[in-house]
Structure formats: C-alpha cells, structure tokens
Amino acid sequence: MRQPQTLLDIPTPALIVDVAALERNIQRMAAFFASGPCRLRPHFKAHKTPEIARRQLAAGSCVGLTCATVSEAEMVAGLTDDILIANEIVGPGKCERVAKLAERHNVTIAVDSVAGLEAMSAAAIKDGVTVGVLIDLNVGQTRCGLTPGLDALALARRVALLQGVRLRGVMGYEGHLQPIRERAERERRTREAMAALVATARLIEGDGLPCDVVSGGGTGTYDISGRVPGVTEIQAGSYVLMDSDYGSLDLPFEQAFHLLGTVVSRPDPGRCVADCGHKSATKDHGNPVVDGMEGATVLSLNDEHATIGLPAGSRIAVGDRVRLRPSHTDPTVNLHDVFYAIEGERVLDVWPIAARGYPEHRAVISRL
Amino acid sequence: MRQPQTLLDIPTPALIVDVAALERNIQRMAAFFASGPCRLRPHFKAHKTPEIARRQLAAGSCVGLTCATVSEAEMVAGLTDDILIANEIVGPGKCERVAKLAERHNVTIAVDSVAGLEAMSAAAIKDGVTVGVLIDLNVGQTRCGLTPGLDALALARRVALLQGVRLRGVMGYEGHLQPIRERAERERRTREAMAALVATARLIEGDGLPCDVVSGGGTGTYDISGRVPGVTEIQAGSYVLMDSDYGSLDLPFEQAFHLLGTVVSRPDPGRCVADCGHKSATKDHGNPVVDGMEGATVLSLNDEHATIGLPAGSRIAVGDRVRLRPSHTDPTVNLHDVFYAIEGERVLDVWPIAARGYPEHRAVISRL
C-alpha cells in the first residue's frame, strides 16, 4: 500500500498523532525540568515509538529514557546511552540480554529480590559488564517493591557484595496516586510517598553505600514528585500523547493522538457503528470519548465495533470519519503498529511503533 | 533468537497452545456439523492464525471461513475459496481490496446500508468481478444490521438491481445471547432470534430473490442455532481455543491456550507479581484465571504486571512460571504475534498470528 497523503486516505482503524500538539507537550515538560535539580527520564512504554523518544530527548532536560521491558531497552539503545528498565528482570534470556546491552550502554534495572539480583549479577559477570541497580520500593501501590526502610537497606548491602552489579539508588512508582482528581489530596499523598523513598535513600547512604538516584513519578504527579527535595528523576510517559483519563486532571498537556475510525453502519437515527472497536482501543479506563461531535458518546466497544449514541438530528452517515480519544494511552498504543503523523488533514509521516507487543517473539518467527 | 525447545526456554509473556487439546476441539465441532444440513464456517477473527484455520478446514464440515476484516480475508485467501467477511465494508480502499480478492475467490460481505452496497457494487464493476452479499440483520444485539422483515427486503431488492453484487442470503449474529448461563433461556432466546432471521430469508425468497445462505451463531449457541431449520451455516470461532468466559458455560470444548508468565517479584507471603499484564491479556471479560495453582487468583492486571493473590503457605518463588487462562480469547490473541505450539513441556512449533492487528498499516511501513 502507498503511504496515505491525507487523513481521508488512511485505512481505519488507525492511530493519528498531531505533531504540533505532541511537540508542545514535549516542550512544556522539558521546560518544567529545565531548571533542575530533578531531571526527566521519559517512559518509552507509553508510546513504544523511537521517533517520539528521539523528539523527547532532543527537547532536553532528560537524563536518559525509562523502559518497561528488555525489548524496549534494546529498541532505544540507538537513541540514548542511559537506559533504566524500571522493572524486575527475570526469566529465560532476560538478564543475558541486559548484560549484552550493558556492553555499550549505561543500563540500570530495578530489583526487589535476592534471586533477581543474583541472576543479574551472574549474567553480568559472565559477560564482563556491570549493570546498574535501583532497589525497588513499594510506596503504596502494593505491586512489586520492598517496604521502604530496613528491607531495602538489606538488599542494598547485598548489591554491594556482588560483582557485575552496581548500586545506583532507589525507585518507587506512586501509580496509585496518579489518578486522584483532588489536587490537594494528590499533593499531600504524593509528598508522603516520595518522603518514604527519599528517607530510604538517605538510610542507605548513611550506611556508606552509594545512592545517587531517587527515581519515581508519573504524568499525574510529575510536578509534585519532581519538586520533592532528594528526588532526582521523574519517569513520566503519558504526558506526551495524553488520554481521556489524564485529561480529566489539571494537567497542562494536550490530547495529541486519536483513534481514527470510519462509520460502517447507521442503523437508526440515534446510533451509528464505527470500525474502531476494542481491538483498537482498550476500555480498562472506560470507553473512549468521541471528539469533535457534540453530544455523541461511545455506548459500547466490542472487538471490532464502536457503537456510538448520537444526539437528535445528527447527520453522520456511512463513510464519515470519527475521532476517538482513548481512555488509556499505553495499552491502546500497544495494539497498533504505526502512528500516522499529521498536520491538519495532511499526513506528514508514518512512525513505526517499533516496540509494540513482544519483539522477541517476532524475532523467533523471522528466523523460521 | 533461536526457537525455544521447551516451555522453560520461552521468553514471557507468551501465548502457548496445547496442540492436542486444540485438535480435540476442532474434531468435536467438525463432528457436530458432519451430519448437516447446517455447516460450519469457522471465524478466523478468534485466532488470526493461518495454521489453526488450516487445521479447522482439514477436519471437514466447513463451508469456508468467516473473517471480520478485509485484512483477515486477504490472509486466508490461500486456505479456502469461500470467504465471508461478516461485517459491513466501508472506508478508503476497502471495497477495492474486496473486489481484488473476488478476482480469484468466492467472496461475500455483509451489508446494511444503500451507501455501503453501492460502494461495493461500484468497486466490483470497475474490477469486472462479482461480490456476494448477505443482508445483515439485527437479531437483538443492536449493533449493526437492519430490522428483520421489510427493511431487509427493501435492501435485498436493491442488491438485485445492481451490477457487481449478487444476493446470497442473510446473516445475523446473536452475540448478546452467547454468554447466557442458563441453558433453557439461551435455547429459547436463540431460537427466537434465528426464527426472525429465517423468516426474513423466506420473505426475500417469496419475493423471487435468491436467499440460499442463512448465517449466524457462535460458540455459545452453535448447537442451538445450528439445529434451527433454515439456518445454513454457523460462524463460531472461540471454541477452538476457549477462554474462562465460555468455559463457564456447558460447552464440550477444552481450554487449549494459556498466557505463560514468569514470577518477577514475591514481595510478601500473600502475593506474587508476574510479567504477564494487561498488554498481554485483556480484562474486558474479567481478570484471567490462574490455572494449575490451587487458591491463587489474579488480584489486579496492570499494563505490565499480573498481581496474584496466593494461598497461605504458597512456595511460589521468583523465576517460577504461571499459566493464566484469559477471559476473552479474541482481543487477547490480538495482542500477540506468535503461538508457541506445545505438547506437554515440549515446543513443537511456532505459529505466526499473521493477521494480528491491522496488517495494512504494517504494509505501509514495510515500503518506507
């Protein structure tokens, strides 16, 4: 297929990104961190798109990139020298791949177990490299991570005893606080969570161990966590594209991407059906929002179909386009292989979402 | 990466399919339809995997394949001559692609609007081909489709007046009835829905128009709809792999696929965290179910993590594998690029989920 020239040429469903809005989001976030001392480490998992990461780094204020997976880290290796994989790395081949990456890059991973730490150490020793380590702390989300305080100190001491790994600091993601609507409560609880993180960093340093990095934060709390003394970097990702969930907070970022669909059915006056269903946008944060069509709402999102309730008198017809604002950026982008980069109605470029899904499995079939 | 030899070699998260269980599901469904007169038209959208479709066709009782999208139809063109795209086809290039496919195959699409019908007719005329048409009826799901009866007859008459399109029959998907737990109610309402479909087919025939195909059904209703006199084919898809949602019904099919994950964190006695999150399994039909680990349940499914509640005394450790039974087959499979085909612990083969996502967009970047 030829590259589409305008919005009208794009087969649907498809993701479109407004390049000007994206750039404004990037610049606003970079400006916030320009004065330091805390820096930005944009999270690649939100968009998995090298071209967007390149633009984030080009805007400045970045200490490197954050990734969620080893595959993502492999994908950004050409873009930055400083890569944090902000997750525990466990499983066949994973530590070996991190070690390989550490041959040429400054790579850091999160750890919260002796088993995970020792596996990384062994792979790094075998490869003759050193991998950075952040102790992952549970700052209230209760997913991965150790309790702040003495448990973390014990694991930090363990790092110091091993070869192939180097203690760099601590991290803790206040994911549970990102969506709090009330600003004062979000501020109060975020400061509490970050205080526990910073206190543990000081505890580790007090023990004579290095703890230069204190990493946390997200799009909903970047300006709170990013001003807590002692926090050194913020892992925000969604700000660059935004979604209807973050859009309901008091954030200075614009909706920069949409799901483009086509009306395929107009069975009655109050309803149309578009071809952009649940295989093209997740609904874990609610149904997508219809943009640019007053009074229209997504009534249901089935695998292949968005059923849209229409206001009285709507003249939308079969073949018309609809634009949906996804409710959750990361898993929605993960459904797609490309962004169509647009300016108004014009398609400027097509950006591969190169780290979509699990590239290691695609590598297996490409060798069959 | 080399092809994994055993389950232990597979990087996670990954989909695994038990080939023996899959084959038993295929054979059971084929046996049900072997006696006719109703036939099976397996729905490709459930798995998007050519190797699985090949096995379904090889088992017999099939009249062809059902697809949800033009891309899927293009993907199965080498497997069968008789392809139904059970959706309205609208949007840039879509009708042209269907026409192209109809140069060498017997292709049928669903229509529920004059606009959609005329677009298909125009593209078919231009290409010098004929495309089959089923009038899509709303049998209660209230998504696409015309009201059974006179509206459908009016559109059928319109088909008969146009070149490039040929009326083949009617279709109606009783999707809203698939999940009804109580068998007697599911039977009663499915028979009602199919009666409306068959009655409209007879109305159209009574008008002197051809109406040989009456297509409907799914995994939850195949044995009900498939025995309603006048229904000629059933579009079931999920039966071949199954999920926890269909697994709660009284169906004779086995769970044939799982999401394989690795425990990356074991932060406290009551909880572990695995690397198979919402980017690897959807939760639109609920959280996945933990198989093979008594008393364990998925507490939350975040983008990259499944947090699993553990029974007292659980000895699961970092590095252990977990198997999750997804709650909804179709959108979960759509997140992955391959199935690892297994027999016990052994990896027999790797099957590309070739129609995952939107292949037309991948075609754009492959030409950049």
Task: Write a brief caption for the model.
Helices cover 30% and strands 24% of the residues of chain A. Chain A is an alpha/beta fold and 368 residues long. In chain A, strands 1, 10, 11, 12, 13, 14, 15, 16 and 17 form a nine-stranded mixed sheet that branches. In chain A, strands 2-9-8-7-6-5-4-3 form an eight-stranded parallel sheet.
Write the layout of secondary structure elements.
The structure is a homodimer of 368-residue chains.
Chain A: E1 14-18, H1 19-34, E2 39-40, H2 50-58, E3 65-67, H3 70-76, E4 82-88, H4 94-102, E5 106-111, H5 114-127, E6 131-136, H6 150-161, E7 165-172, H7 183-206, E8 213-216, H8 222-225, E9 233-234, H9 244-247, E10 257-268, E11 271-274, E12 289-291, E13 297-301, E14 306-309, E15 321-325, H10 329-333, E16 338-343, E17 346-352, H11 359-366
Parallel strand pairs in A: 1-16, 2-9, 3-4, 4-5, 5-6, 6-7, 7-8, 8-9
Antiparallel strand pairs in A: 1-10, 10-11, 10-15, 11-14, 12-15, 13-14, 16-17
Helix pairs in contact in A: 4-5
Structure, explained:
The structure is a homodimer of 368-residue chains. The first copy, chain A, has helices at 19-34, 50-58, 70-76, 94-102, 114-127, 150-161, 183-206, 222-225, 244-247, 329-333, 359-366, and strands at residues 14-18, 39-40, 65-67, 82-88, 106-111, 131-136, 165-172, 213-216, 233-234, 257-268, 271-274, 289-291, 297-301, 306-309, 321-325, 338-343, 346-352. The radius of gyration of chain A is 22 Å and the shape is globular. The first copy, chain A, is built from eleven helices and 17 strands. The two termini of chain A are 25 Å apart. In chain A, helix 4 (94-102) crosses helix 5. The mean pLDDT of chain A is 97. In chain A, strands 1, 10, 11, 12, 13, 14, 15, 16 and 17 form a nine-stranded mixed β-sheet that branches. Chain A has an eight-stranded parallel β-sheet with strand order 2-9-8-7-6-5-4-3. The first copy, chain A, is of the alpha/beta class. The interface between A and B is large, with 79 and 79 residues.
